[in-house]
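Notes, Module 5: Reading structure tokens.

Key idea: the token line is not a picture. It is a compressed description, and you learn to read it the same way you learned to read a sequence, by spotting repeated patterns. We will look at two proteins. The first is printed below with its tokens.
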Amino acid sequence: MRLEYDFSKARKNPYARRLERQATIRLDEGRMGRAELKGSVRGRAGKERMTRALVSAILACLILMAPCLVAGENTVVSDLRCDPYVISLGMTQSEVRRKCGEPTNVQTWEEERVRRDFYKDIPVQSQEQLSQEPLLVKEHVIVEEAEYNFGPTRFMYYLRFENGKLRQITVGNYGY
């Protein structure tokens, strides 16, 4: 940037004439009184508005970040990346092990669950049978939870299989 500029060879803006227009504003005492009042209050109201906007923005950020802060270390996700593969819900144990390798730790147990069955597999003889209460059926579910540790720079993943199908992927803390 120069210290001084030479405007001796400058020319006037040819469009300046078009911009100049005459305006008339009629002022009476009533309007002047309201204008002065608005001017004195406007500074304080503007600061209050800015403060409210700042507080609202901070609260919105906290509300949006709350699930991440509350969830902390365990968050349920729908996909897992085992380079170069993507593991998603519904895959079988063998597919996951083929793509991600053997898990670091595995826990297996059996649960007994009660579910409703709406006569899907039973042939219905009459309309009366259709209106009956649904059957409650006990089923045994083999649950296996596999822990995948991908090292200290990546998160640990906990994969929950039910009867050989991937039902839940949970993200933990950084690995070791």
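Here is the second protein, with the sequence above and the tokens below, as before.
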Amino acid sequence: MTQELEDHRGACYQTSTKPEATETAPAKIGPPDVHGLYRLRRGVEELAKRGLRPVRGNTQIGRALARWRGQLVRDLGGNPSTAQVAIVDLAARTRLMLDSIDSWLVAQPSLVNKRKRCLLPVVTQRQVLADALARYLQALGLERKAKPLPSLDDYLAERHSPEEQAEKQPTEQA
């Protein structure tokens, strides 16, 4: 079924009203493109659900990031300040995105757009993320800090608490 339309200049146009006349894009044949976007989204959603902390242990990404985050906290002496925790969380999220982009880049046949003769834009964006991660780590400090040790008096007082001394006294009297 066709319809004739006339515009303001008097030209006639024929339009089709049949549903099969609308063209659809042909379905793509072959395996889907692998780009890592969904994996990245899943990881970011996981971080958002956990208060921006990668502690979910049932995914490979979550376990790796939790291990890396724990190593950062340990390198800070084991008791980071609130600001340090925020920077550690930013570094963990940045590392997640950086690792995802790196895995996608490795799967690409070339990092150069041959038609435009330039690097893919994701390469420069990856470098921005890498620079941000380096700044976060530099803000945390590049040197490992030792865990603060209690003084000898504190250690001895803790080791020989009054409860333990009370338990030992009745056995000594008997």
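Summary for the second protein:
- The mean pLDDT is 76.
- Residues 82-107 form the longest helix (26 residues).
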